[in-house]
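Sync notes, pocket subgroup
Present: LS, DG
LS reminded everyone that the earlier model was apo-only. Rerun requested with adenosine-5'-triphosphate included. Inputs:
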Amino acid sequence: MDILKQNIQFLKGVGPKTAERLIKLNISTPLDLLYHFPRDYDDRRRIKKINQLVAGDKVTIIGEIIGQGRLIKNRRRLTVLQFALKDDTGRIFITFFNMPYLRNQLKAGSKIMVNGEAKRGLNGFEMINPTYSQIDTDEDVKINRIVPIYPATEGLKQNQLLAMQSYVLELSSNNIEDHIPEELRKKNRLCNLDFALKHIHFPLNEKQLKVSKYRLVFDEFFLLQLGLAGIKKNIARFKNGIPLKKKGYLQLLDALPFKLTSSQMRTLNEILEDIQRPTPMNRLVQGDVGSGKTIIAILALYICVLNGYQGVMMAPTEILAEQHYQSLTQLLSQFNIRVGLLIGSLTKQQKTTLLKDIANGSVDIVVGTHAIIQEAVDFKQLALAITDEQHRFGVRQRTALVNKGVDPHLLVMTATPIPRTLALILYGDLDISIIDELPPGRKDIKTVEIKEDKKGRAYDFVKKQLDEGRQAYIVCPLVEESEAIEAHSATETAEELKNTVFTNYRVGLLHGKMKAREKEAVMTSFKNGEIDILVSTTVIEVGVNVPNATIMLIENSERYGLAQLHQLRGRVGRGSHQSYCILVHDCKSEIAKERVKIMVETNNGFVISEKDLALRGPGEFFGIRQHGLPELKIADIFKHVKILKAVEKQVAELLREDPDLTLEKYPILKKALEEKFEQFYEEVGFS
Ligand SMILES: Nc1ncnc2c1ncn2[C@@H]1O[C@H](COP(=O)(O)OP(=O)(O)OP(=O)(O)O)[C@@H](O)[C@H]1O
């Protein structure tokens, strides 16, 4: 195997220049090259002449480019490159979307091979976005089989990659240890690794390709899930937690004006189980907007304080920190618990005093924004940290909060529920609790869409609700370029609405550029019913809770993503009155129309996030991950859900057999896993 791990520069036929180019593709060893999978295949067993084409055929055509390609740019910055290709029987039009640079590569007179679906267009046959390869010699055409097409980079030709790949495959043959043992391969109907690597590059038929792909996708998910399970074990094994006693919380439950829902109760019990252990809790609470996560957090903090320790709750915005602070004080001051609010707008003097009180333990619970808490606070004895998913921190950041070598219990809250299988990958290192019901009596929020030019009707409807004593949010257009412009536009909108449509109502304004004090004052007035309509930017997106507000009108809703729309809509429907969400839009793109349609169709956060992820694609989805987990090169969490499930089953089985994941029975698997997670382990400081 070592020969496969040497520097690729020493491979036959690879010089320093080529090696440099390969590095750009993240290939520095022959083994990396083996794992540089084709992005597509040219099925050259189906080469056809143009006059043999039938509409719908998936075929390969070899031809010569006629003339310069025609490049069309439209207003939405979409580019269309079009040219004609001829062979000795006819011609076909080829169109590439958004690949203007191809114009320089595909020159008049050059010979290329395109592979794709032939369609009948206005001017005869056409092919849209086919895969293509340049033909340099007649040899290229003769290969009569399925030829891989690799992600390439400048200066590296497909043919070169192909040649290197076959050479490496020769080297690797019989040199590859299979880290999935035969017993597990048999059970999961997997071919061996050697076969899979060979045939993912050079399959002789579809079946070989399918079998190989299945094995490699399985492989990636398998190692990832095992690795994540290992991380969980590691965290548990090596860290010191503070076992807390489960006491006193019934008192607080009794004092609440409502009974917990059964999912809230289940979640609370899961947390209680965790915090009684000597290892730190690492738990994610997933709950749809308005499902009542805050009270669970408060209960956990309360128990922590009753045990004589401090707790901290971090919020993504000051408004939310303020709101949590109020809820906590309201509920906990009766029990003589001291809560501190740590936000940027404190005076120097206030901040110094607060920090001192936190350090000497006279403040029990600290609420604040992440930035502040992470940078400067020294706790006397912190036992519980609560954060949200975007700001969830890795082990390294967590140490910033840790005193005396003890790790606090960690609770991560998210209002973006995602399907369980996906959560297992995204949050594989956390235990997961799900609050999957809303408090009783909640009505579905009625969502309607309305075109920009019919907005007047929407405003009339808002007035009717206000006249019944309810309140409304009007969210201003999202301006991505700058918060300042956004603030400006919100201010203008508020002025205009106040002076034209809503002259008889009290209109308030909220945006990110306001001082914390001003924001707080506006939020308080809105909460107290002194403002009828709150014109706001998306600063109200997360967490804000004003049950009497029943209308959420979102201007230019086409500019928002689904998750954000759902979050915004979640600001209403938080009490017993019927609530409404009005999406004012001027949709042009299909994807924006689709988003609006989904919002109108469902209130269910799980369904919405699933669709959202599908619309956005896995790339962005995985962008959320902050740590250096191994990337997925061939597996796709959307396309390969079935395989993911099979893997999940297998991993669970393995863990049942070998709960400490020693993998003693499978030393090669153990080694592969360690290699794969090396970087991650280093980052989080596991030995
Ligand atoms: N079991 C319950 N019965 C009745 N009302 C409840 C219950 N649990 C929570 N609530 C109330 O429901 C409202 C929403 O709860 P909370 O603010 O905790 O939601 P959330 O899950 O944090 O939502 P978001 O993610 O939107 O911030 C609050 O007014 C809260 O007091």
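DG: The CA atoms of residues 21 and 156 lie 7 Å apart.
LS: Residues 258, 260-261, 264, 287, 289-295, 415, 439, 543, 545, 547, 570, 574 surround adenosine-5'-triphosphate (CB under 6 Å).
Action: DG to write up.
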